[in-house]
Amino acid sequence: MTFIQKKICYFEKPGESNTRDAATFAVERARELKINTIVVASTSGKTAQVFFDAMKGSGINLVVVTHVVGFTKPGEWEFSEEIAEQLRKEGVRIVTGTHALSGVERAFSRSPKVGGGSRSEAVAEALRRVVAVGLKVAVECVLIAADQGAIEVSGEVVAAGGTASGADTVCVIHPAHTGSFFDLQVREIVAMPRVR
Questions:
Q1: Which pLDDT tens digit goes with each residue over 120-169?
Q2: 111 pLDDT band (50/70/90 cuts)?
Q3: CB neighbours of 142 closer than 8 A, spacing ≥ 6?
């Protein structure tokens, strides 16, 4: 029987206060596995900055996935233009794409005329509730980044997501495109909140 032992870190509580540690854990695991890309969710740009700072000099590429324009307010992008400009100058790829696990289906489920949940929203809710909100976010960001051509679907990436804001979940994922969702594999949990 062959097996591998890995360290997993459990945060006492979910949330933004775990972001710096999550970034450190992401870089450590990427180095350990010789993974050259970290994918991180960032709404305003603050989490992206923390991850960028943690990765400086590591040779690891950072791909940041943001909310779509209009996610909160019509026509508005929540990501800081100033932070986006700084990160792009440093070679960071910023991807803004439709949520892979909701997208247009959210419009149907929120509509009083149509109503009801969808299968992709059920998958998202299962990931959120059974494992961690940040795992759902990390999986979704990897799908979006793959669909935008920002990451390859061969090999592995380290991905990070969070609960509400910041990052509190880090995992190793074999990516896939949204259309091939069941080819995606969460191969390792590096860190997550123990209680959600």
A1: 777 778 788 889 999 999 999 999 999 999 999 999 999 999 998 999 99
A2: low
A3: 39, 151, 157, 159, 173, 175, 176, 184
Is the C-alpha dihedral spanning 50, 22, 36, 55 positive or negative? positive
As a whole number, mean pLDDT of residues 45-49 equals 98
Residue pair 109/115 in contact by the 8 Å Cβ criterion: yes
If one counts every other C-beta atom within 10 angstroms of the C-beta of residue 125, the result is 13
The angle formed by the CA atoms of residues 95, 99 and 104, to the nearest 5 degrees, is 130
The pTM is what? 0.91
Q: Residue 42's closest CA among 103, 123, 96, 100?
A: 96
